[in-house]
Here is the input.
Amino acid sequence: MNPSQVPTPDTNLEAYLQSAQSSQLEDLSDWLRIPSVSTLSRHTADVERAAAWLARKMEAAGLQNVETVPTDGHPIVYSDWLHAGDGAPTVLIYGHYDVQPVDPEELWNSPPFEPTLRGDNLFARGASDDKGQLFAHVAAVEALLATSGSLPVNVKFLVEGEEEVGSPALYAYLPAQTKKLSADVCLISDTHILSPDQPMIIYGLRGVWAGEITVNGPSQDLHSGMFGGAVHNPNQALAALLAQLHDSSGRVAVPGFYDEVQELTESERIALAKVPYGDVELLQESGAPAVWGEEGYTVTERIGARPTLEINGMWGGFIDDGFKTVIPAEAHAKVSCRLVPDQHSSAIGPMLEQFLKQIAPPTVEVSVNTLQHAPATVVPLDVPEMQAAARAYKTVFGVEPVFSREGGSIPIATVVQESLGIPILFMGFGLPDDNLHAPNEKLHLPNFYRGIRVGIALMQELISS
Ligand code: BES
Ligand code: MN
Ligand code: MN
Here is the structure.
């Protein structure tokens, strides 16, 4: 062979990446067929199968020390490759293999656990959140190991099966494993970018408080003809209480709710204003008839940098076909708050309960039960790894990423950052219209393949950061 025809490692890698696309898609589809719904106990065995599938795939990709760690809940999957040599940094890649329930299933255009390709999109529950995005990094490692036999950096994978239920097992596992998980930086692809051609680095995620409000009235359900008008209806009382949780300017009316909230600085407002996302995009992606929210803030600020209170569900009394003239004994609401830096997630439940008790009429009793809480995550922008992340996106997409804050939550992220003392790079490649948690979740495949390249580019950039 003429020396000029000897393929360099890069052309090797390029050829590999092009020829591997169909097997990467097949692999991911296999994984997506396993209904790993963490919140439904009837899927416990499926969640375990999804963990085992990932562990096998990691072995095949050349990762080592692959472990499926049993927990009180769903397994944690760990693996690593630690041969990058002296001085090479270590990247901890976090993701989750559990998925959300599929209901309402009748609104799916193809079955949620039969991955289906339509145009550029692969439709399946978990395609974007988070199996597809996590899988891209396994594929990135596999590509480098297959073509060059090594990685530029050390890599550790930490993948859980309980992110969608608040990560109880990982909260218990992490504190004792800080040595094993020690790394220089954590990479999480579980967020989205702005559009197929505009990458975005997330430097803040909101925290969360979630709980349930219960209103109790009469000691049992009553005939609404015999008692209506003389007994306060718990559904009506609950509706009145919920209606007082916001004021007319869209602010949360619970006293103390904003006490610890860090106001946006002028320079951050200017920076966030550069994110090309506004009312038009919001209306398009949500299908809502009009924009709503806290006066004085843009939609990017409202979503990423302001706290909120949402009523996620309300029930009580009779909701079946036809009608039943009844006054229910109790009424319920599921409520959640998104929190911003410095808000104490543990304080929200008591604060809400105190307010509701104070405004509740003496005709009913109200109580609040906390189900989950975690503080907001803030990532430092001035670390060299952040520059490496930006360069990696630029290399693959050809454009500089924008920096923004996102409204969703990854409860364990703050614990990872604080217990390991490392910054997190939130480098997603999902899209805002991926239908996360909703019918017809999908993954934009061109971005999936770009995600694999971003993973590779990041490993390469981190050695020069
Ligand atoms: N991947 C999401 C978080 C996310 C979504 C971040 C969109 C940024 C943009 C994650 O899987 C998720 O859904 N988290 C839950 C956590 C909750 C169950 C405690 C959330 O945000 O509702
Ligand atoms: Mn996720
Ligand atoms: Mn999710």
In short: The domain at 3-205+377-462 is CATH 3.40.630.10 (Aminopeptidase).
